[in-house]
Amino acid sequence: MATEHDINKLAALFAGARRITCLSGAGMSTESGIPDYRSSKGLYNTLTSEQVFDIARFRRKPELFYSVIGPLYLSILKAQPNAGHVALAQLADRFGKELVIATQNIDGLHQKAGSRVVHEVHGTMDTLSCQDCGSQALAKSFLNELGKGEVLRHRCGGVFKPDITFFGEQLPAAAFSASLDAMADADLVLVLGTSLQVYPAASLPDARRDGCPLLIVNRTPTAMDDKADMVFHDSIGELLPQVLAQMDHGAQPGSQRGQRSDYHSALFNNNPTHLQRKNDL
Length: 281
Fold this sequence. Notes:
Helices cover 30% and strands 17% of the residues. By secondary structure, the chain is an alpha/beta fold. The chain has two domains: 1-33 and 81-122 and 171-281, Rossmann fold (3-Layer(aba) Sandwich), CATH 3.40.50; 35-78 and 125-164, SIR2/SIRT2 'Small Domain', CATH 3.30.1600. It has a six-stranded parallel sheet with strand order 3-2-1-7-9-10, sandwiched between helices. The protein is elongated, with a radius of gyration of 19 Å. The two termini are 33 Å apart.
């Protein structure tokens, strides 16, 4: 649990950085009601098998994917950003940081919170592509079908596949390349809500330059904890707003921690290229 000293140190670290690059994962969105993929209560533990996200199986049996994921897909489309998403966006909007987010998430919540530069290295669930004719559509056009777990089809009869990266598929090349560049240019790298188990995205923080500080905030240990300058197993949605509040208050005598920050409610008041599991490497 972060102490007052930790918060002050983090605030100074953030304040001193001009270019901040963040790698976010499923744990970033759990406070928005979206299950993560690796914890004991994560998504993979509610499925028959992780293979439901295997591209070969999807092509053979799309009904398996949609029957299991369809209702969850619907809830994700309706999800709203949490305080962690909002705090990240405020680093750019309020504090003028050059913020770049490389996200493994497919939920679009960073963009909903107001972050402008977001590279979705595992794609997006907002759009669909027909596997036969290549036509695209918006997932929100199929809310009724998703709620029923039905296979989504184009009028040509072809199956729609979400524009997310399944295991065995290539990552979006432009998004991954831009993420590498942002890591290399950063003054501070944040790893938020990812256990760093899925490659090649998990290798992105290794692209940071020598001497660039690395901060990890994740509920469980990660494969890169021993390389990090600071590691916290706190709630992202609680920690980041406290840091930004301290940046606002500075080191002025009498400034108080523990007060609920405006960042909690700001939103609501206004070079492998294929996706792989770590044990597949």
